[in-house]
Design a protein that fits this description.
The chain is mostly beta strands and 412 residues long. It is built from four helices and 26 strands. It folds into two domains: 36-165, no CATH class; 173-396, Porin.
Length: 412
């Protein structure tokens, strides 16, 4: 009887101790989460935590390695456009990373089975840990919004980090001011001062499994306003033979000398490479260009508008935090919108080739200087082309910001 009682007591202790430990951990976590929710007010989209418990390491055959349970030392994370694009978990002096695909933060519950692979070992023989319970994310009721970009290279286990969205348009509205070098030196009849604004509105929040492939990622309305030299800001018209109407002398001038452009782009497909260092995008879109023409007989100014449809492929390189390179090829279908006194011309295709280098000059990587070269080639039989060499500065529009605590530490 004594032996039976001792055995039962041992079983109770073995089953009870881990349970008491888990309850203690949960109680501590829930307490911190409640405090974080209270302190963050109405701007938090969710709460990210690195566990203080030990994590199990698995081998390449998906078997847990006996005795390989360690506490996490620290973690690094980068959230961009709603996705965990890079995460590193430091365990026992080794790093475990998401090497296959970004993790959609807004659907984190469906990705808890994702594996973080060790940087050590052969390609197909790497150990791994599961992202959950190593990383825990509690979404708030406002989790349908795309979170603000977030970088933290020192996530401490047990610390609750607030993932938030800005209460303004600063995160999505990109503003540029620039000048065209060829226009300034009178090599091309380009604008000498240009203002451009774009607003990226995210649509797609799900990537195809095990690939950084996102369909319909965003739409991007844009507006461009150009200031020309007074001597070159109008498109020349010529008199039609035996008619009262005029026609445009060089249709390509309507694009080169457009003083206002309004439209939008739709991202069809976005594909990331090398942990978001490179991205390939396929876009389409449309817009309207406003130009001014001048008659040859009495120098009257007539407004002339064109409609453009477009299809675009582009590659963006972000290998270094303070340097970027964009290359794009765009097919533009330019079509006249009828105007009294000016004869329509046949719509035609233009091939635009664009290359941009930008460098960040401040701690905020959204603020940068850039150098952009554009080449427009008329693919119609009439031919014609022009160049642009633009130098400028881009930054997010600031409508005021809402501050929030970065994290709730282990201290109560």
């Amino acid at each position: 009887m004594k032996t039976i009682l001792q055995t039962l007591l041992l079983i109770v202790l073995l089953l009870g101790v881990p349970n008491f430990t888990l309850v203690g951990f949960q109680s501590d976590y829930e307490s911190k989460l409640t405090k974080a929710q209270k302190d963050s007010g109405n701007i938090a989209l969710g709460y990210l935590t690195i566990t203080t418990e030990k994590v199990q390491i698995y081998d390449h055959t998906n078997k847990p390695i006996s005795g390989k349970e360690y506490k996490i030392e620290k973690a690094e994370i980068r959230i961009k456009e709603g996705f965990i694009s890079d995460i590193r978990i430091y365990v026992n002096g080794n790093q475990y990373i998401n090497s296959k695909a970004p993790i959609n933060l807004m659907k984190f519950g469906k990705r808890i089975g994702d594996k973080l692979y060790s940087l050590n070992g052969k390609k197909n023989e790497k150990n791994y840990i599961f992202i959950f319970p190593a990383v825990r994310y509690e979404a708030s009721i406002k989790n349908k919004f795309v979170p603000d970009d977030y970088v933290n290279d020192n996530l401490i286990p047990g610390e609750i980090n607030i993932i938030k969205k800005d209460k303004n348009l600063e995160a999505v509205v990109d503003f540029r001011i620039y000048s065209d070098f060829l226009g300034v030196i009178n090599e091309e009849e380009n604008g000498i001062l240009q203002l451009e604004s774009k607003a990226k509105i995210f649509l797609g929040t799900s990537n195809i499994k095990n690939a950084d492939l996102i369909p319909l990622k965003y739409i991007e309305p844009y507006m461009s306003l150009v200031r020309f030299d007074q001597s070159t800001n109008k498109v020349a018209l010529i008199q039609e033979v035996n008619q009262t109407n005029f026609r445009v002398s060089e249709p390509m001038d309507l694009l080169e000398k457009s003083f206002l452009s309004v439209g939008g782009h739709i991202n069809i497909l976005s594909y990331g490479l090398m942990n978001d260092h490179f991205s390939f995008n396929v876009n389409t879109g449309m817009g309207v260009n406003l130009s001014r023409t001048i008659t040859p007989t009495d120098n009257r100014v007539l407004d002339f508008n064109t409609f453009q449809g477009m299809a675009e492929m582009g590659i963006e390189a972000r290998r270094f935090e303070n340097f970027g390179l964009d290359f794009r090829m765009t097919g533009i279908w330019l079509n006249p919108l009828s105007v009294d006194e000016i004869s329509d011309f046949e719509a035609f295709w233009i091939l635009k080739t664009s290359a941009e280098i930008n460098g960040y000059i401040a701690k905020d990587i959204r603020k940068s200087v850039f150098l952009r070269f554009n080449y427009f080639d008329n693919l119609a039989s009439s031919g014609g082309s022009f160049y642009q060499l633009q130098v400028g500065y881009k930054a997010p529009l600031n409508f005021g910001s809402v501050k929030a605590p970065k994290s709730i530490t282990n201290e109560q």
